Amino acid sequence: MTRLRVEQPGPLALVEDLGRPGLAHLGVAGSGALDRGALRLANRLVGNPDGLAALELLVGGFRARFDGEAWFAVTGAWGPVTLDGRPVAPYTAARATDGSVLELGMAERGIRYMLGVRGGIEVPPVLGSRSRDTLAAIGPDAVEAGQVLAIGPEPAASVPLLDQEAAFPPPDGPVTIALLPGPRAEWFTDAALAALFDSPWRLSEQADRIGARLVGPPLERRVQGELASEATVPGSIQVAGGGAPTVLLADRPVTGGYPVIAIVAPGSLDAVAQLRPGQELRFRHA
Question: Where is the domain boundary, 96, 116, 151?
């Protein structure tokens, strides 16, 4: 069996697949890859089914050695990727030989690489998924230096000769995010609702897989009373008492007590996953 021997994991290396949906009634979030499009693309490039587990690598600084031959692909963030010191083209499948060393430098565009290998990363599933939920501490722990990861058996599909879908690096300038109406939009003043769409926002340093705090004008509430905890979905934009919005992401709590002014449209969630601290974003109506 081919294995991946991790020599340097970088700031955060997690095993993620498409998550464990349908368990919110048990208090378990869906979790899974933040950039789901990058996961699907990495798997497609090496001939895997969409949902096989891959490595989500924050920022870069990752190095690993292949014990055996394997196809792999790196998607998501855009930066220097080398195999035995030779550059590997982004968003393409490449073949590693026994003993080959793969290195991912610091991302130049985006913030989360997705490393897919043919056969997927094999770790014991928990509640039907191999994903790490960083809030609930469910699933495999973060990958550590010296850890050896098993790679699953060859899938039935072959490695495609050419992927037909054009792939572009994450933008490094302002990003436009589509929003759906939130269930508690009426709790906010007309000025707050206008500011949400008219003002530029920036991603703060307080951003992880649970949620991403935004920096911008405070969003004033019309209703000042307490809100009983209610269900959240990925992309819910909760607004705390001081008026600062936070976009809840894959490892969010399944219920929350702050009003949700809007919800990031599913098609824009991958873009949020690749935002870098300080990067500008603007909202539009979906």
Answer: 151
